[in-house]
Write the structure tokens for this entry.
Amino acid sequence: MWKLSLTVLVLFLMTQNVSAMKLLQDSTTSCSIKWTRFFSEDTPTKTGDWETLNNFRREYPGEICEKPVAVDALLLDGRPAAVSGNNVIMSPTYGLLCLNAKQGKGEGVHCMDFKVRFLCVN
């Protein structure tokens, strides 16, 4: 767990498009930033790969904070998600969604298997 100054935290949150107004109200606030472990609930099917925050909360209660501020993804084998070439949607409030139908035309074009983690600020 990292301990950061409020200024560093606010700058980080601003780059993540997260409102920092609540933190600015008290300049003595001490916050901690922590990534969760990686989660992979879904194995790609004929339709895609769903790695959703709601499913992880249901399956692993208490392991993810109430309001994650960022999401990160890797392929299940640990390679960066970008090497998949897949068109994915990621959001800290949803997780990751990869639909086979959005991967283009051609035989064998499908979503790879992803895992995600969430960034929590307390």
